[in-house]
Amino acid sequence: EGSGKMASLDRVKVLVLGDSGVGKSSLVHLLCQNQVLGNPSWTVGCSVDVRVHDYKEGTPEEKTYYIEFWDVGGSVGSASSVKSTRAVFYNSVNDRNEYGSCKAYAYPRRDYDREQFADNQIPLLVIGTKLDQIHETKRHEVLTRTAFLAEDFNAEEINLDCTNPRYLAAGSSNAVKLSRFFDKVIEKRYFLRDGNQIPGFPDRKRFGGGTLKSLHYD
């Protein structure tokens, strides 16, 4: 009976995008298995894993959902071949603006028009997966740049070390941001199909104009 109930859960799809080697698979494994991925390998095509999430946990609206993580391989090759390879896995991302957002996030090293995301309604989460590999003397500079990137995407931001589960410990600020992000994804998928503003999106202050070159660390 329990397994049948779980099988009937509604689900949402989260695309995990980024350059090759940034730690996408390690992140997904940590999120879904609560374990460090000991020997990560290159993802060819796409890998899918699932996590159970309690929407609005502790409230009368609480409901359990599956979160499907589509770990899309950061293919090595020309920009056109990478785009065509990844596009196969965007088939359920039907909104044109949402697809544009995915493409911009998938290629963070390029310049982009920040105004494209000014009124973004798509839940985005920018995750820095290798905080431990940033030298102390560079950490402030790098984290400031990732903060600007998240600002431009109207996204929440998390920085962690995927080899240390404590960064996602229950009750931590990262865990709270992650849960809030999943709630927004569920709201967008099931409750706000008319495109209204998603509750809880931060009213972010903009930090000046122009474009921003993204960094190698995403």
From TrEMBL:
Entry-linked Gene3D superfamilies: P-loop containing nucleotide triphosphate hydrolases
Keywords of this entry: GTP-binding, Nucleotide-binding
InterPro entries reported for this sequence: P-loop_NTPase (IPR027417)
GO molecular function annotations of the record: GTP binding
Top-level taxon: Eukaryota
Family: Belongs to the small GTPase superfamily. Rab family.
Stated name of the protein: Rab-like protein 3
Natural source organism: Eschrichtius robustus (California gray whale)
Source lineage: Eukaryota, Metazoa, Chordata, Craniata, Vertebrata
